[in-house]
Amino acid sequence: MKCVRCQQQLSRGVYEGVDIDKCVSCGGIWLDDGELAKIVGATIETFSQSLITKTLDTVSKGIPQSEKDSVERCPKCSQEMKALNYAYQSGVIIDSCPNGHGIWVDSGEIEKVQIFKESQDRDLEKNREDWHKLAKNAKQAAESDLKSTGLLSTLIDFLEKLQS
Q1: Are residues 111 and 133 in the same domain?
Q2: Distance of CA 84 to CAs 130, 137, 164, Å?
Q3: I need a labelling partner for 42 at 20 to 30 A (CA). Which of 6, 20, 120, 154 fits?
Q4: Burial zone of 44 (CB within 10 Å; 0-12 exposed, 13-18 middle, 19+ buried)
Q5: Domains in the chain: how many in total?
Q6: What are the Cα distances from residue 149, in Å, to 138, 152, 154, 156, 162?
Q7: Is the pLDDT of residue 156 over 80?
């Protein structure tokens, strides 16, 4: 299989316990379908604080015009790949085969994807309790409003009539 960017032969390797195809010339990586999910689920690699900071400081939505204009072809089926912003807002642009064969990440991007995902997971865990409290308060407020307006008993009566 040949590199999406420089057409050099890809060599097999292992990253985060996952078999990958890497270009020794440009450092890009081809990941078969499902391999990215395995990689972001692993936490073997550790990253420097400077790389983490740099990656999270460049988080952005959308796809730069230069990426939209660039035409990369799937090394398996030769179809034009689609540029995607990982998780819609990471700022890490990956190229995806429209036929589901896999994705291409340029040199250094796999690490940025992992950093972004780990950051999102930490934020989610940190805010989980707040979200549960917010949901509980919203539910209590809705129940209180239904009781005070008599809508709850009307709704229950209606549902009971539907069942009979």
Answers
A1: no
A2: 31, 37, 52
A3: 6
A4: exposed
A5: 2
A6: 17, 8, 10, 13, 22
A7: no
Locus of tokens 């934020």: 123
Q: Which of 51-65, 74-88, 118-132 has the highest mean pLDDT?
A: 74-88
Residues 55 and 22 in one domain: yes
* pLDDT at 144 (0 to 100): 76
**Six-digit token string for 71:** 């035409």
Distance CA 7, CA 27 (A): 12
Asked if residue 82 and residue 109 are part of one domain, the reply reads yes
Q: Is residue 145 part of a domain?
A: yes
Tens of pLDDT along 28-62? 999 999 999 999 888 766 777 877 777 777 766 66
Do 85 and 154 reside in the same domain of the chain? no
Of 108, 118, 103, residue with least CA distance to 44 = 118
